[in-house]
Structure formats: C-alpha cells, structure tokens
Amino acid sequence: MSLPPNVITNDDLKKNGLETTNEWIVQRTGIRERRVTDAETASSDLAIAASLQALEDAGIDAKDLDLVLCATATGDYVWPATACIIQQAIGATKAGAFDLSAACSGFCYGVSTATGFIQSGMMDKILVVGVDTLTKHLDWKDRSTCILFGDGAGAAVLSACAPNEGVLSSVLGADGSGLKSVWLPAGGTRTPINAETFTDSASEHDTHLQMNGREVYEFAVKIVPQTILEALDKACLRPSDIDLLVMHQANIRILHSAAERFGIALDRLVVNVDRYGNTSAASIPIALREAADSGKLHKGDIVVTMGFGAGLTWGANVIRWTRDYGI
Ligand SMILES: CC(C)(COP(=O)(O)OP(=O)(O)OC[C@H]1O[C@@H](n2cnc3c(N)ncnc32)[C@H](O)[C@@H]1OP(=O)(O)O)[C@@H](O)C(=O)NCCC(=O)NCCS
Description:
Helix content is 32%, strand content 20%. By secondary structure, the protein is α/β, with parallel strands linked by helices.
C-alpha cells in the first residue's frame, strides 16, 4: 500500500472555511482524516510504490509478470493507460498492461478479471493495482463531497494456486441507469475540456466530482448484502463462514450495517475509512495490507471482499487466503 504523507483532518477543512464540523463528519461518515497528494504527485507515483512492495512481499520478480492490471478512475492521463507507466517503472518487461475503469469497485473487478486469466491457463502471474487520487477532482468548497475522499494505492500479486484455494467465487454487477449518482462529467469525449467549453462556472463545476449522496447510500445498503450473499452462495459458503470482511471504505455506517446483517463481530470487519476516507479503488487492497500487518489475516481464512461505486458498479470475491504472515 502507499499513501501520500499529507494528512488533512476534519478540523483542517473547517479551518479552511468549509461550513462543517468534525462532529458532523464523524457521525455521518466515520471519517476523521484523509491523505491528499500534492500537485507533483500523480496516481502512478502511489501505484508504483505499492506495486514494488507487493512484488517484494510476494517474492516475485517483475520480469515474471504476465500482466499489469490497474484499476483506476483517476489515471495520470486521459490515455494511455496508467498500467503502462507502472509496467515500465517496475520493469515488467514481459507483461501486458491495461487500465480497468470501475471506480470504487475497481479492485474487485481487477481481482475477478485476473482470476479469469489465471484459471483459463492463459496467464500465471498478474499484478492487480487499485489506485485513485480523487482529491484532484474535488471541489473543496462543496461540503457534500470534499469531506469524503482521500488518495491512496494498494497492489496485490495473484498467481495460480491449488483448486479450492485462492479466489473461490466472483460476482460483478453494474447498473448504468445510476450514471449520474456519482460521476465526473467533463474531460471525456462527451464534454472535452478545452478553451471553448471551459468558459463559465457551470462548466467549471463539471470538472469536479459530483454526487447524490443519498442515492448512493441507498444503493449501497441494498447492494452490499445482496452481492455478498450471491458470492458466498456461488462458493457454497454461508455468512457464518466469513473470517474477515473487507469492504470498500465509503462510510462507517455502511460497513457496520453489513457486519450487523451477517452477525460479523467488529474485529472481523476491516476499517480504514476513519484514517483515509474513501480511497476508491485503493480502499480494499489497503485494508487487506493493514489486516495482514495487524495479524487479522491468516492462511486458510475465508475473506470476502466487496466493492461498490460509480457506474453504478459492484463486485465481490470470496477468497480462501493462501498466504501465511506468521503473525
Ligand atoms: C454524503 C453523506 C455522508 C451525507 O449524509 P446524509 O445523512 O445523507 O446527509 P444529507 O446529504 O441528507 O444532508 C443532511 C444535511 O446536512 C448538510 N450537510 C451536508 N454535508 C455536510 C457537511 N459536510 N457538514 C455539515 N453539514 C452538511 C446538508 O446540507 C443537509 O442540510 P439540510 O438538512 O439543512 O438540507 C451520505 O449520504 C453518504 O455517505 N452517502 C454515500 C456516499 C458515498 O459513499 N459515495 C461514494 C460511493 S463509492
């Protein structure tokens, strides 16, 4: 995992003139602080740092990778893919590289995609990176969005394992009718950013992340339990089999409601939203790294990852963990 060093607390936001309070943000979201990249740091910088750690941790040489798959909604450039920047920087000379755009579901989508390539026999070793620097696209005067997001990256190396180990099942879903529930309107081919379009405050507004928080919240509380149950069912497992629940970190209330729904004790629910806010595609791999470091993740554990976000998209993976961290 990799996070920028710059910490912005809720009080910092208030001090900068935002009409909010630490109490409101903590009570509604669970977020206390977030990490924010400086102007010189782009998504690939965080992604490369996380990728190098993942390779070292896995004991795998970058030259042995078949694919670099980067899940991001905030690539360095509109194109080419940020995965190519990572591929070159880490020396993955024999790997293909592409980006996957599924916003906060990106890491789950990436793990599912990589699993398919490996299970088909087409590839052996794949680096999956989840990275986002959404703070670059925030309107820091909009209190309904800017309080929520932070920057970060996480990476994992997936490789072939024995049957009934590793990724046991995957569920992916999407509902494009929710396109405008959380989105960034300008910068694509529908509304390119150029001297002609970028002329007034309305179009300037379109260059920032926009969200209907209530809509996204209602979508999340519905889709989270549904998707987890579907993924467990596909793996012939039940909620009581879950050793660790690693969900996308958007709001502590969504995390707690899922844990409560499945009778999961809070020590089996990984939380980092309090310290990093919503880091989008990075939140799940960061949570996995922290779970491993704090002794919560063991070989043989049933780990359920679940992500949801813009698109609207959602996804889950049920994993029988294959690594032993000796903690
Ligand atoms: C964004 C979110 C925290 C807002 O919480 P909420 O309970 O829905 O709050 P509302 O938007 O209804 O706003 C309630 C009031 O608080 C105010 N408010 C909004 N943001 C505020 C802030 N940062 N500080 C203080 N007050 C705020 C609103 O203006 C509103 O005031 P009003 O009642 O006078 O109109 C919540 O909807 C949420 O977490 N949604 C999911 C978002 C998400 O996860 N997005 C990413 C998906 S990957």
